Amino acid sequence: MSTSMKTLAAATLVVLASVLAACTTDAEPAPTSTAPVIQLGAPGEDGRTLSPDEVAGLTTAPYVEADVLFVRDMLHHHSQALIMTGYVDERTDNPDLQLIAERMDVSQTDEMDLMESWLQQRGEAARDPDGGHLGHSIATMPGILTDEQLAELEAARGAEFDRLFLEYMIIHHQGAITMVTELYEAGGGQETAIDQIARHVEADQNIEIGRMRTMLASMD
């Protein structure tokens, strides 16, 4: 597998504290920060300096419990995707399938690193093995494959494996998109950092679904 591309990161807002005059009855105006605010790019993309209007529009909403559950659940969800991509090299010689699996491995590993960092920076446990998707068990998370489906994929070889991998990974990706939708429906995703993570996951999964559907159609 190739080395990880640059990780997605949240926008960083630098705020200087107000300084009050101690020897006069009139308070001096608070100093205006001249420090640039840098928004880091998605994996493989450069960061950029935000304009004053963009900085003013950044949300400072705090994260909520739904955000924590979403991140923990997505870590479990991505972990299963990595199990699936780990089957590829030994079960198919299809270079197109190997390439898309490699891209998934890189992007989802990067996203997992970012999500674990998000939890750690907020003092939240990175993993909750007993947790569930917004109140549901891990086994019933959208798109999660059953043990039987994983065993079927692991046992397949060649063209049969290619077809099963694409069919099951499309289901898996659609589940991740559903999880993003449920995050916002539950009132989460308002904090800038978690909003960026969720939207990146949604965009990335949609792009890959399109690619996989094209590959699957070419097998008919």
TrEMBL record:
It holds the Pfam family DUF305. The keyword Signal applies. Keywords: Signal. Residues 27-48 are annotated as: Disordered. Residues 67-216 form the DUF305 domain. It comes from the Bacteria. InterPro entries: DUF305_CopM-like, Ferritin-like. Residues 1-21 form the signal peptide. The keyword Signal applies. This is DUF305 domain-containing protein. It comes from Microbacterium koreense.
